[in-house]
Amino acid sequence: MLGLNKKDTTLxxxxxxxxxxxxxxxxxxxxxxxMAQMFNAGYPxxxxxxxxxxxLVIGFNILFGLTGYLSFGHAAFLGIGSYSAVWMFKLIxxxxxxAILLSMVVSGVFALLIGYVSLRRSGIYFSILTLAFAQMCYxxxxxxxxxxxxxxxxTNGETGLQLSLNDPRILDGAASSEGxxxxxxxxxxxxxxxVQLEIGSWLFTFNAGYYLCALIMLISFYxxxxxxxxxxxxxxxxxxxxxxxxNYTGLNTKPYTLAAFVISGIYAGLAGGLLSxxxxxxxxxxxxxxxxxEIVIMAILGGVGTLIGPIVGAGxxxxxxxxxxxxxxxxxxxxxxxxxxxxxxxxxGVLHFFVGKGWHLSLGVLFMVVIIFLPGGLVEGGQRVSRxxxxxxxxxxxxxxxxxxxxx
Amino acid sequence: MSNSKFTRRGLLKTSTxxxxxxxxxxxxxxxxxxxxxxxxxxxxxxxxxxxxQTGPYADEGxxxxxxxxxxxxxxxxGGDGGMMNTFSSKALDGTGILxxxxxxxxxxxxxxxxxxxxxxxxxIEKDGAIMIxxxxxxxxxxxxxxxxxEAGVIFMAGLTHSNDTxxxxxxxxxxxxxxxxxxSGAALAPVLESLYGKDRNAYHLTADYTWGWxxxxxxxxxxxxxxxxxxxxxxxxxxxxxxxSYIAPVLNSGADVLVLNHYGGNMVxxxxxxxxxxxxxxxxxxxxxxxxxxxxxxxxxxxxxxxVKGIHGSTNWHWSLQxxxxxxxxxxxGTKYGFPPSQAxxxxxxxxxLYADAVTRAGSFAPCAVAEALEGFEFDGLxxxxxxxxxxxxxxxxxxxxxxxxxxxTSEFDLLEVVEVTPAAQVTYPADHPMxxxxxxxxxxxxx
Amino acid sequence: xxxxxxxxxxxxxxGSAYALIALGLTLIFGTLGVVNFAHGALFMIxxxxxxxxxxxxxxxxxxxxETKADFLGNPLKVKLTYVESWxxxxxxxxxxxxxxxxxILFSIPIMIAIGFIMERGLIKHFYKRPHADQILVTFGxxxxxxxxxxxIYGANPIPTGAPAVFRGxxxxxxxxxxxxxxxxxxxxxxVYFAFSALIIGGVFAFxxxxxxxxxxxxxxxxxxxxxxxxxxIDRRFTIMFGVxxxxxxxxxxxxxxxxxxxxxxxxxxxxxxxxxxxxxxxGSLPGAVLAGFxxxxxxxxxxxNEVKNIFPGIDQIIIYLVAIIIILTRPRGLMGRKGVMEx
Lengths: 408, 448, 343
Fold this sequence. Notes:
The structure holds 3 protein chains of 3 kinds.
Chain A: H1 6-25, H2 34-39, H3 44-67, H4 75-91, H5 96-118, H6 123-142, E1 161-162, E2 185-186, E3 189-190, E4 194-199, E5 202-207, H7 208-229, H8 231-248, H9 254-278, E6 281-282, H10 289-302, H11 309-326, H12 329-335, H13 341-351, H14 359-373, H15 377-392, H16 398-401
Antiparallel strand pairs in A: 1-6, 2-3, 4-5
Helix pairs in contact in A: 1-7, 3-7, 3-9, 3-10, 3-11, 4-5, 4-6, 4-9, 5-6, 5-9, 7-8, 7-9, 10-11, 10-15, 11-14
Chain B: H1 10-15, E1 27-29, E2 44-51, H2 58-75, E3 101-108, H3 113-125, E4 131-134, H4 138-151, E5 154-157, E6 174-176, H5 181-196, E7 201-207, H6 210-226, E8 229-236, H7 244-247, E9 257-261, H8 264-276, E10 283-284, E11 287-288, E12 290-295, H9 298-304, E13 312-315, H10 324-337, H11 343-362, H12 367-374, E14 377-379, E15 387-389, E16 396-397, E17 400-405, E18 416-422, H13 424-427
Parallel strand pairs in B: 2-3, 2-4, 4-5, 5-6, 7-8, 7-9, 9-12, 12-13
Antiparallel strand pairs in B: 10-11, 13-17, 14-15, 15-16, 17-18
Helix pairs in contact in B: 2-11, 3-4, 5-6, 8-9, 11-12
Chain C: H1 2-32, H2 39-57, E1 60-69, E2 75-81, H3 82-97, H4 99-121, H5 131-153, E3 169-171, H6 172-176, E4 184-186, H7 187-209, H8 211-221, H9 223-228, H10 233-255, H11 265-280, H12 285-302, H13 305-310, H14 314-329
Antiparallel strand pairs in C: 1-2, 3-4
């Protein structure tokens, strides 16, 4: 189907099904239960983040997973895409399509420039070049380019670029200077509109913005499968395994790696544009080196070079980030209230360091555990588990069971 | 969060045909079944406390969280009532808000606009928070205020000192109790004049981001009005940790006062560096060289240690104030946690009480009704004297403290001493003051 | 001219910190082939060794002073330190005053132990893994270490002063014939510079003039041959990891009085020191030191008002800009070897 082989088609269908049913899958606990308060993730903002960061990491994986070039400045393209989209909302109108297109174009141009320069070096020298470019973008966006008093205020500094009542918005017509800000929409469908469905004590939210992002994520995922399976993808893998040999055969690898870099930059810009479309504020922190590091972490957590890995990694990271930081001591006490008092206090006392203000610690420990024990990321974990089941079912077709296809 | 099984959606269950999950769902768009976003329907109401729990302001955030917990306890009738007893409005009676038990959710702003908005969104979308409050930086406050305006909930700003929060970026759904850069300048200027005279040359070091710029502008304006000359104003990167290369040229520039428009870690480091360079032992133009830190906080003073001794600045509130309200607050906070509250804790406690009081007086949780109750509200008994929540820009006008780093602290908390309480009238400015121009409140948004 | 001299002094000082961290990073990379993202955390832990020692020395018991009141109106509990009561007020105060220099002795065994534990317990298992995995696992470790420190000491910076004799600043200008106050420089920063020059010299001398150092250098150049000669190079490399940790730790201890230590100071230095290492050339010790001082001085120059007026914001990006230019003009940094970390 769609020019994919059977296995990839199955994978695409599974991902499409998961994306479609995410509001159900992510809200396993009935509304109002104490588990729901913390573990349910089926609210629009987080669902949007899942798929948007999925897109970002899918794109990063095209570069890192296929060519082995580790870009440590990918967050810059995310930020550039976000800023472009918000500017589009400010100047043109609140429809998300032009904003998303512009963010892809602008970040593509930046990726072309930065990639052209950075790809002159390889290995860690390449990583540091991309890092340096990204940090320059971040620092300038935070200060010089963001000073409201200057005439070149492109980013609005620390606060982040946001809409204001007196923006021109040529297509929508300037909204009245009194009243509320207009909302981002897709030909009239507001991104924040949701439909809620109640079944028994469960409540499921279907958000317009989420479904737009999910659709775009599926398209990006499909494109990424096609790239992985194309001669172009094969060429990129050849670059990864031995670039020198490629060069000796008289083949110039640079156009291929540059194309991969630009494609992954466009993916990041698309993700940035979508972030802004869901919530029209673009902050400079999106470009900070820790944000770039987070992209690398998500890719490796999921499984580098696998098709599904990026989505898994992005989902895992975003989920734990959101959930862990919101747990506080009183929540812990509530969960553990069935225990005897002394024991309860002791356990809460220990867990206290891992939740709320200590969520970085939990995340750090989780990263280390995954990286130490699952070199192939979570996907490898999934494969191990499924292989275990396969063996029990005495099937020898272990390969088919895996949700993924490692690149190497 | 409590053991209660009721949430805002709790009652929805009953409205559904409980046909064992049969396909007869109630479908509605947005929350149009309600008059406004997150209308609390059960026996409880959820507030969202969005504070920095990680990053450089984590300690300040932790202190804010303590104050919020204390405020919730008092609102629900627990503890000794704190400032509820001294508050001039007597609408609150310790039975929650409008009879609903107050619950809360917490989140981490990370002092990043993006993360703060994501956290606030999750509170609004998932936990059904009716009001968002907190934060320890102006960028975050402005970003979250914008979000609350769009989502249709009330935002009660925490520690945010930039003029923009109630100036260029003011919003109808956002309210600020904390003072701002202009007020710091207006309060400090007369004190500086009496201490250092009219003929001074000031050198500004300014953190290169929104808050730094507005504070620099404010302090420059008010000191230049005294007759001071501004020799130079240098922007320093927010990420800078070592300020030596910015401080070294100061002495040779002919300046005799150094103004540090820095906050948090920046201020701790720049002040430490300035003292290291021996600036305070020097004589320039025949006068003692002086350092001024316009915005002070006790936590920062603690970080800078001995370097703060004798350095002047302004602050929103300090625990050593001797009015009944401050004493009541310090007592109930100190009894619960064992140390006195910071100004951040004070302002968020006040904000929570002010919100609860406004809801009670309005008789409704609807943001527009609450906003109306807060606008133009005059009150007393929250530690800052008589205060006005001005309707035009949602800024509180109250006394501002000028403080000085104490020479002989008696304890690790006793770092600042109040030099002067500048009356509110002196720091009041017209709503259309140029430093606050360029924005408009817009109309209040009930959401849904 | 005096302004330039002043910024060179500043740059040397900034450069010392960069150079020391980069030196340790390169030691680890050159010997073990591991990219250690937890190196900034080691620097931070060093600074907290100073904090810890000063807390230990300030350990105190409480005496109730009825004449004063605390913030709740109860009688004030006055804290008296054990050190002062044991050694008498004057000697005791002097010991407390010298906490930071004393912490040098205190920190060396701690840092070496931390280095050993890190290498044997974690990093050993990552020699054969891709560099990206090494980066991530050490980055995870860095997060864990800094969160542990935060859980113990809080997020607020903790002031840790230099001994009283080193407070204040020295007027170089008068010495050079400029007017007073033209070139002043704090004593402690001069101590820091001298100290780091000493450490850097020490590390080079150790590698150059001792048998142990010779073996390590041989191992860096050709590990397999050295192993064939029957030398247990792994053990020596482990020791070098401990040395590198100690270098980072000492850099941190002495940095404590310059800026109050906080839990994220390691992360603040991490990226910059990586840039320094790469600009110097991966695996080159002299390159790391040279690049450290060079970038420190350039950063100081970029923060001069005269420069900033021409190029606004240049001080925010100078290091990255220089890094890009150098990597593009010199493919392997200033003094890097061919084939190191280029795949």
